[in-house]
Amino acid sequence: MLSFIARRALQTIPVIFGVTLATFLLSQIIPGDPTDILLGPGASEEARAQLRQALGLDRSAVGQYLLYLQNLVQGDFGQSLTFSKPVSEVLASRMMNTALLAFAAIVLASVLGVAAGTFAALKPGSLRDRALTVVVLFLNSMPSFWLGLLLILAFGLQLRLLPVSGMTSGDGGLVNLLAHMLLPTLTLAAWSLAAIARMTRSSLLDVIGSDYVRTARSRGIGEWRIVFFHALPNAMPAVITVIGMQMGFLLSGAVMTETVFSWPGIGLAMYQAISTRDIPLIQGGILLLAVAFVLINFTIDILYAYFNPKIKLA
Amino acid sequence: MNAISTPMDALRPAPVLEVSDLRVSYGSASRPIHVVNDVSFAVGRGEALGIVGESGCGKSQTMLAVLGLLPSSGRISAGKVTFEGQDLARLSARQLRGLRGKGMALISQDALSALNPSMTIGTQMAEPMIHYDGMSRAAARERCIELLDLVGIPGAAARLGAYPHELSGGMRQRVLIATAISGNPKVLIADEPTTALDVTIQAQILRLIDRLRRDLGMALVIITHDLGVVAGVADQVAVMYAGRVVEAGSTDAIFSEPRHPYTRALLEAIPKLDEPADKRLTPIAGLPPDPRRAPAGCAFHPRCRLVQPLCREQLPALEAKDAGAGHLIRCSVDPWARTATPEARGVSASGALS
Amino acid sequence: MSEAAATAGEDTTRSAGFGRLFRNGTLVTGLAILGVMVFVAVFADLIAPHDAFRANPIARYLPPLSPGYLLGTDELGRDILSRLIYGARLALLVAVVPTVIALVIGGAVGLFAGYAGGVWDSIVMRIFDVMFAFPGILLALGISAALGPGLSSMIIAMIVVTIPAFGRIVRGVVLGVKEELYVEAATALGYGHLRIALRHVLPNVLAPVLIYGTLQTGRNVILAASLSFLGLGPQPPTPDWGQMLGGGRMALATAAHVATIPGIAIALLAIGFNLLGDAARDLLDPRMKRDRD
């Protein structure tokens, strides 16, 4: 197990370096003179030269990348134009808000997705099974921000049941936070819920048709024990893989969802950065979310190996 | 009713498991596809019945129907299954579940896929004992060790914590057998129990099954494509083809006087010890029919070398003919009838098929 | 399934094959949706009741079913139906074009990596690994933002992020084919490399690429709408569904139709491609029925 973790870690490190290289390249593909954006077109050539030197723009591409890496290691993600603060500060103050939303969404999507997939798989071809197929198709084809707007319209503006913007209001408190979280969480979870339900269903159907489930039945094991103790554990590895993949959608979906619900996370900051062409903030946000995604996948792989005795030995 | 019966019936115990005129169907009610047709047999306590046929002949479907484990798309559309006099169709799902494992148990072909890969041997063996029989964990553990000893697994206690993939093929099959007999079943159904194993292990496993059957007084139904397996273990044999029994009788009768061309062909396809090693085995040409497009008349006629016009039109009945009592044959031509001339068997009297 | 198979087995005439396709509801629905979309896009000039660009300050935020404005008007008083109809052109363009270009580039790269093997293969695969490490729309968002908002930036961004998946599929097929004996035989016979690659790989790669490509086109509908919603797509006043949705968001409380109606169009187009992809998967490759995406 330890050697497995070590091997997997060794594969992860180059990917993280690659990710930093890719985010660095983003600043290289900006058309025109980057000092234009920072200083405006009317700036003097002297000021431009000074800024270039300060930012290391006078160095070669390799030199610039090394400087970028060096800065990253020191926690320097550059300066955000939108917020007039270091990018690291902007990201740090918002990281937990995004994590909270993404975590709530993955929990919701996993619980509901596994439940719905199981419910459908127990009676393949039945009405509820076909209903799930249709719901999955719709959730898969619906832009999440549109779903968010529909939820705002229904629960916020028409029924006036839930707040539709921000994280807290009034005195705050846990109930207030949860009320603010409900709609964004649902919006963010929808797509993943569909994918998880679909995978749970097909994986469970495979397992229920397997020899060992037949053996268990032939020994008089009851249906609910078969589903929960024999079928689900064996269907889980495939489901866990999908859940891991969904973490990626959740982290990027946060940009859309946070924008729609004005949730003060990294995604909302990135949205605000787009209109001001605040590339350092966009770079930093992408880097942070991508590294988080890589680390989550790493963790999932370890969990996967832990739950699957066959891999553990290999 | 075509149950296998002999003049010794009076001496035989009442059958534990009796299947009469069983039909298993798939597909819609308006266009059903029958995979098992008019199958009848009975096994008593301590008896062993072999059901023989190529894959796809309906033998496994028969046993799944008996156990009530047909997939949801399949159903018993005619006939009945009686266990200790009870019609299984009349039992509730709960009663049927109670019967499985305790009344009837199953050993499947491939122990690796038949054992749950994510549970240790001990956990899956003990599951029904703890959760349905109210045994304590300690008692269940003792019982599991006892069972593993019984099937000849050395160091049983140490094996309880192993996962199926950590054992050898033969070991796994023993574990599967131990699992099957853990509920003291009255009928043990073994579906190709040795097919996935090496030849040497096959013999050991067969001896084990045979010993357990005698020691524990179980009725045994052994399903196989290999007449050689049946010869060593079964008292009675039913040969199935395309969902129907084509020949049935005592093992002695079937081996000494095979009457159906299909049975003959199966016998010619297995090597015999008393024949020169260089004698050519005769495989059966062609494949069993697709149940969706079963041929008219006798289902075997497209592959039968001795086919007559009648065979293409009329489905023969399973009947006694002039063989010994209890020996039933489903063949219109019956080329090996005691009264038949060699000509009826074609030019070469030695083989029914090429 | 068994009945359909039996029918197909007995009767292999062409008409029976088409009959089976027509009984496939998924395929028919998907094709119908896409057919309508293409029709609308092609004949937009004839169908659209109004000029999609003309603002009408006295007819702002008209609700649906207003006289002359079936789906109402937006914040500038432009006819929503007409903008939707013209928007279909752009929606189809940004869904299909990036997918096709990414397919060609990704396919070529995958073919090269799988065929060359060794160091080249490793380099390409590591690059793909890094690109897969960026979750969802983030990489596209970054590229689009760095290049500056606009249609061409968005399309470039979409192409870049779609390449790796096609590359991986084609490389996988190439590796499989390379193992097959017939390629060894073909090499021994002295055929050119390119010819071997095209002749043996192409037939094997067709089904998976077609299936994945159709499903990816559906995903690209959503991706384009998302980028556009964030302001990274075609700039106003171009009639673009994602942008229409984003523009209507501000008036959700008073004129919900401005934002909700374009969403229906986006979802419908995505459903069309997803249904077609599912149908392609069922028809072309039964083994892929197990969910893998």
Kindly describe this structure.
The complex is a heterotrimer of chains A (314), B (354) and C (293). Chain A is mostly helical and 314 residues long. Chain A has helices at residues 2-28, 34-39, 45-55, 61-73, 87-121, 127-141, 144-158, 174-208, 211-218, 223-261, 266-275, 279-307, 309-313; strands at residues 79-80, 85-86. Chain A folds into two domains: 2-73, no CATH class; 87-313, MetI-like fold. A two-stranded antiparallel sheet of chain A has the order 1-2. In chain A, strand 1 and strand 2 form a beta hairpin. The longest helix of chain A has 39 residues, at 223-261. Chain A is globular and about 85 Å long. Chain A starts with a helix and ends with a helix. In chain B, 30% of the residues lie in helices and 20% in strands. Chain B has helices at residues 59-67, 93-99, 111-114, 121-131, 137-150, 156-159, 169-181, 199-216, 227-233, 251-256, 261-268, 309-313, and strands at residues 15-26, 33-44, 48-52, 74-83, 86-87, 104-107, 187-191, 219-224, 236-241, 244-250, 328-329. Mean pLDDT of chain B is 85; it is low at 347-354. Chain C is an all-alpha fold. Residues 1-16 and 287-293 of chain C have low confidence and may be disordered. Chain C has helices spanning 2-10, 14-23, 25-42, 44-47, 80-116, 118-132, 138-147, 151-179, 181-188, 193-229, 241-248, 257-284. Chain C is elongated. The chains are: A mainly alpha (314), B alpha/beta (354), C mainly alpha (293). Chains in contact: A-B, A-C, B-C. The B-C interface holds B 26-28, 31, 33, 292-293 and C 2-3, 5-6, 9-10.
